[in-house]
Amino acid sequence: MKIKRALLSVSDKTGIVDFARKLNEAGVEIISTGGTMKAIKEAGIPVMYVSDVTGFPEIMDGRVKTLNPYIHGGILAVRDNEEHVKAMHEHKITGIDMVVVNLYPFRQTIAKPNVSLAEAVENIDIGGPAMIRAAAKNFKFVTVVVNPDRYNEIAVDIAQNGGTTDKLRMQLSQEAFNHTAKYDECIQAYLAKQLQG
């Protein structure tokens, strides 16, 4: 599946600038948020701010930035469904072919000594898992990447073939659901512990 547009929004920025550079060199348009966008922009790589896509600013201390039909419609649209394609045209939604997201560091936050419940709660990612799950669900058309160790392999595929194979997208989908499952397990276990305390 050809990749024309990618959304990059990562907490762990390992390798993201180099990956963004390779995507840009392959002709992929990049959308990004906050700190990820800043890192990409500072490296001189063209990047579009997610607010320019949604027409809406990041609000509530960044709690709400990607939870928007221009993002989720772009990720979830079934590209060979005429009704979905028609809705994209009607609402001026551009497809997002790749989602590169890793989540707020909840596990690292709760490992700190004397971390408050409020600080832990602020490190529960909402938009990230929503984008990951949307992209993973739509793996027939969308490549989802949660692991920086995959960047080089994917960049090579895009440079050589313009996109990713069906099998790789399904593998990445499985990895993504595993990632969000472990993330949610960590959160529920933390909250269960607080209730016992």
UniProtKB/TrEMBL annotation:
Which residue range or ranges hold the MGS-like domain?
A: 1-146
Q: Highest taxon of the source?
A: Bacteria
Question: A GO CC term?
Answer: cytosol
Q: Which CDD domains does UniProt cross-reference here?
A: IMPCH
Nucleotide-binding found in the keyword field: no
For this chain's UniProt record, which GO biological process terms are given? 'de novo' IMP biosynthetic process
Q: Does the keyword Hydrolase apply?
A: yes
PROSITE patterns in UniProt: MGS
Alphabetically ordered keywords of this record:
Hydrolase, Multifunctional enzyme, Purine biosynthesis, Transferase
Q: Which GO terms describe its molecular function?
A: IMP cyclohydrolase activity; phosphoribosylaminoimidazolecarboxamide formyltransferase activity
In terms of InterPro entries, this protein maps to: MGS-like_dom (IPR011607), MGS-like_dom_sf (IPR036914), PurH-like (IPR002695)
The name this protein goes by in its record: Phosphoribosylaminoimidazolecarboxamide formyltransferase / IMP cyclohydrolase
Which organism does this record belong to? Propionispira arboris
